[in-house]
Amino acid sequence: MRILVVDDSAFMRKAISQMIAEDPKMEVVGTASNGKEGVEKAKALKPDVITLDIEMPEMDGLTALRHIMRDCPTQVLMLSSLTTEGSHAALRAMTLGAADIMAKDASQISLDLSHMQRDLLTRLRALGQNRRLHGAGNAGNQQQPVYRSGQFDVICIGSSTGGPPVLETILKPIPATMRTPIIIAQHMPRMFTQSLAERLGQVCQLKVVHAQDGMAVEQGAVYITPGGEHVHLVKERFGHWKLRINNEPADAPFKPSVNAFFSSAAAEVGRRTLAIVLTGIGEDGLLGAMDLKAKGATILAQSEETCVVYGMPKAVTQQGLVSGSLSPEQIASLLKNMAPPARPAV
Predict the structure, then answer these.
(1) Catalytic residue chosen out of the listed positions 187, 210, 230, 232
(2) Tens digits of per-residue pLDDT, 127-172?
(3) CATH number of the domain where residue 182 is located
(4) How many whole angstroms separate alpha carbon 303 and alpha carbon 305?
């Protein structure tokens, strides 16, 4: 796998190149110190994956990304600082075509090199193995199911690599009359999930909140789980649930854990759960989906053709747990049709 590293910091270019060199199947074919040089080398070297810093002189990462996606479309992993500004920029990058985002903190690299290296190599492998660029439109491999208003008490969505633009596609068309609450577990750092909640709140007709421990689950609201913590549904009384946000299970490889989230929905909501598994690395969500299926819940997966990484949806689909493999546009249409029509003005 051939990788181009674009970063204005000589230290970061060297550190990232050294991390990548540990994998014999990966090769750094070039480095660039700014966006302009990065675009030129992307065109000349035609790498499989590009790591692209956001904040750079001469041409910033977002501008460079626009040029790359226009002139030589490539899988791009954006490296963002863990700041509010950095997280907002990272989400904009995903809407411009970046496949994934990863937080970087130069001050922590020497202290936690092994963790960052594992994370970086896992993401690069996934993107390199799936050369298809996302945005495959309405591709879905079967007829879209139809669900009625009030059929489900809760909609649970698990999402990872490539998820934020898909979430926006799914949620944006849903009208304000939607009554079924939507809870989302997206693999991202907390700063990024905060920015994601703000972004979705700006473009969606539904109320979108960054979830907090003990929050009551209200009709017609969307809850984004804070990164670095888990979300669990807890039934308070008939037809009423609250969110428990904590660090259990402590040994889960992803926080939030889609497995823990789905399993809580299986125990507390049961068959009146609609679970949706979106693009992402690995199999998080499979065990929880098995618990949901055992309770008679309905599970949908994102179609392979539209995934940045067909890992999480593939796992539940191969186990025969899903009622449909749908494109983001099909999922959006399905959820939109579950919303009751607006009452005519008197």
Answers:
(1) 187
(2) 988 755 554 445 555 678 899 999 999 999 999 999 999 999 999 9
(3) 3.40.50.180
(4) 6
Is 284 assigned a catalytic role? yes
Q: Could you tell me if residue 9 is inside a domain?
A: yes
How many CB atoms are closer than 10 A to CB 193? 25
Q: Based on the fold, state whether residues 35 and 72 are members of the same structural domain.
A: yes
Per-residue burial over 127-155, b = 16 or more CB atoms within 10 Å of its CB, e = otherwise: bbebeeebeeeeebeeeeeebeeeebbbb
- Neighbouring-strand partners of residue 223: 183, 209
Selecting among 87, 160, 257, 264, the annotated active-site residue is 160
> 81: domain CATH number?
3.40.50.2300
Tell me the whole-structure pTM to 2 decimals.
0.91
Residue 149 is among the residues annotated as catalytic for this protein: no
Total domain count for the chain? Answer: 2
Rounded CA gap, 285 and 264, in Å?
12
CA distances from 130 to 42, 88, 172, 185, 314 (A): 18, 26, 27, 23, 13
Domain limits for position 76: 2-129
Of 53, 257, 284, 327, the catalytic one is 284
